[in-house]
């Protein structure tokens, strides 16, 4: 039995599909109101804020994938994520289930030019500190031998369909709507984006690779790229004459006074001033057969009719 926590979210859905396709038909989907993806799926409604629910959701699992997402709400992250992590660690330890944790890079230093698995945590901002706390809780449990686990860490998303990311929202979705694309802070610094299906495929692969446990892995990405280059690729793919504007920090600050979503975005925006090179060489060397989706291939799927 392989269990996906957060199965209604995009990453959870993609993990479940990858597991079914390549690893097992014995899949359990867990969320507050889970929905089957495949006829053979087991669905278990659970509130991971409650230990009893968490234990029930995890019991009988060989591998558990923690892919729970929450809205971009700092207070919610602070109150819920650490409690969920504590409950999941405890339940996995009690049931001897392995854990694969889908993590992000918010805890890394904002101007760390190259990010590797050994980069120190320098969280700045409420959401960053909440994610750092979760990762530290799990790393401590792993070090003490309480749990067999791995961390799969991903940089900023871009993806198909209704992917909720800065790049999808400000660039691709606006291009689809024949609007001017918006680039945050700078069009010329390097960014590293991960294609969401690649992230999910990679985490499922790690979860089914016994010697991957006990480690942190950067999930595989294409090379780093500037937003200017992304626009050029999008022009090539769509055939559109795409116009864009670079929105400076002061404009976001004004917007944050009137828009709660922009306010929640503010702690992440300073990262867009610096090169952000996410190094996934460790994964690529261990799994050389893994096919990483190029930006052109990904953007072709974003705009596929």
From TrEMBL:
Domain of life per record: Bacteria
Q: Which InterPro entries match?
A: Epimerase_deHydtase, NAD(P)-bd_dom_sf
- Offer one Pfam family short name for this entry: Epimerase
Q: Which Gene3D superfamilies match?
A: NAD(P)-binding Rossmann-like Domain
Question: Which stretch is the leader sequence?
Answer: none
Q: Where is the NAD-dependent epimerase/dehydratase domain?
A: 4-213
Listed name of the protein: NAD-dependent dehydratase
Q: Which organism is it from?
A: Staphylococcus piscifermentans
């Amino acid at each position: 039995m392989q269990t996906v926590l957060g199965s209604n979210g995009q990453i959870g859905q993609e993990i479940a599909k990858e597991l079914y396709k390549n690893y097992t038909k014995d899949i359990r989907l867990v969320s507050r109101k889970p929905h089957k993806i495949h006829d053979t799926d087991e669905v278990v409604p659970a509130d991971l804020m409650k230990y009893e629910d968490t234990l029930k959701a995890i019991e009988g699992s060989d591998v558990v994938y923690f892919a729970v997402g929450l809205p971009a709400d700092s207070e919610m992250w602070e109150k819920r994520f650490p409690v969920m992590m504590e409950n999941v660690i405890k339940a996995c330890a009690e049931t001897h289930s392995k854990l694969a944790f889908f993590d992000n890079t918010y805890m890394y230093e904002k101007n760390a030019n190259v990010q590797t698995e050994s980069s120190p945590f320098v969280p700045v901002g409420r959401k960053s500190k909440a994610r750092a706390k979760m990762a530290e809780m799990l790393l401590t449990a792993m070090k003490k031998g309480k749990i067999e686990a791995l961390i799969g860490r991903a940089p900023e998303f871009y993806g198909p369909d209704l992917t909720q990311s800065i790049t999808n929202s400000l660039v691709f979705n606006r291009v689809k709507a024949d609007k001017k694309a918006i680039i945050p802070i700078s069009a010329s610094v390097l960014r590293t984006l991960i294609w969401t299906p690649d992230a999910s495929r990679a985490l499922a692969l790690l979860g089914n690779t016994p010697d991957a446990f006990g480690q942190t892995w950067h999930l595989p990405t294409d090379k780093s790229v500037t937003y200017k280059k992304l626009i050029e690729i999008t022009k090539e793919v769509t055939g559109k004459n795409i116009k864009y504007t670079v929105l400076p920090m002061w404009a976001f600050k004004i917007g944050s006074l009137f828009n709660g979503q922009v306010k929640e975005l503010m702690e992440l925006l300073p990262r867009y001033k610096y090169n952000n090179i996410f190094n996934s060489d460790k994964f690529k060397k261990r799994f050389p057969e893994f096919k990483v989706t190029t930006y052109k291939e990904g953007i072709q799927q974003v705009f596929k009719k």
